[in-house]
Amino acid sequence: MVLNRFSNYMSVKSLQKTISIFIIVFYTVGIVGMLLPCTFPLFLKLIPFALILSFVMLAFFNESKTDWETVMCFLSIYILAFSIEAVGVNTGKVFGYYEYGDGLGVKLFQTPLIIGINWLFLVYTTSAVVEKFKFPAVVKIIFASSIMLLYDIVLEQMAPKLDMWHWKNETIPLQNYLAWFALAVLFHSMLKVLKVKIENKLAVLILACQFIFFLSLFIWFKLIV
After folding, report:
1. In the chain, which end has fewer C-beta atoms inside a 10 angstrom radius, N or C?
2. What gap in Å lies between CA 119 and CA 155, rounded to an integer?
3. pLDDT at position 15, please?
4. Which pTM was predicted?
5. Residue range 11-23: mean pLDDT, rounded
């Protein structure tokens, strides 16, 4: 019995290591593909699929409880995030005036369906990061929301280049960052109120790879080229 458990543990660790290497290679290839003019259009179309693949890998290594309350919490975050984005893009009252391009795929109400997944992805991974620290719940909420804000600050610089979304007059309003942070606090508060604790061994790696991906593009296209 002990031998079987040890064998299963080693196989899980081996699988985790293999997938971790795959993720690093995957995002590295993505960065290179985006930097080369000849492959940029192709890799641009792959962005929604990359996000979905990352989300699937996270789900596979999810160690959190998957009870009904947790599922409903995740579903609520998706629906709320998508709905707020839809209201925002159609009214300009939430984040400011902007419009979505074609970089994030299929749209409903002028809003990509995948944008809700992106919000859920960020809430999930940043929560997994802060759960590694023994901070009070309020501190964890602020810490996780701040990570999401930092991610958005970098992402916003590259979103137009990647045809994700475009701001009116090419100006990112302060309102966007304030709304982003407020929503991040709301969603992380939902996790705490519903006692959803996120644990995932790949969350930190995938979040870091995505952040480095957008940061690398920002440095190349905005500071070098």
Report:
1. N
2. 13
3. 81
4. 0.91
5. 84
Decide if 98 contacts 167 (C-beta within 8 A).
yes
Q: Which domain holds residue 45?
A: 2-224
pLDDT above 80: residue 150 = yes
- Residues 40 and 221 sit within 8 Å (Cβ to Cβ): no
End-to-end alpha-carbon separation of the chain, Å?
A: 59
Q: Amino acid letter at 93?
A: K
- CA 97, CA 170: separation in Å to the nearest integer? 10
Contacts of 79 (CB under 8 A, 6+ apart): 116
Structure tokens at 34: 């985006």
Mean pLDDT, the chain, whole residue set = 91
Structure token digits, residue 90: 């159609």
Q: CA geometry: angle at 34 spanning 179 and 31, to 5°? A: 80
Phi-psi region of 165 (alpha: psi -120 to 50; beta: other; left: phi over 0): beta
Q: Which two tokens stand for residue 15?
A: 């699988």
Q: C-alpha dihedral over 187, 145, 63, 74, to 10 degrees?
A: 20
Q: Which two tokens stand for residue 187?
A: 């969603």
Domain total for the chain?
Answer: 1
Tokens of 29: 């290839």
123, two tokens: 């809430």
Which regions of the chain does DSSP assign to beta strands (E)? 98-100, 107-108, 111-112, 165-167
Measure the CA–CA gap between 171 and 222, rounded to whole angstroms.
15
SS3 100: strand
Residue 134 DSSP symbol: -
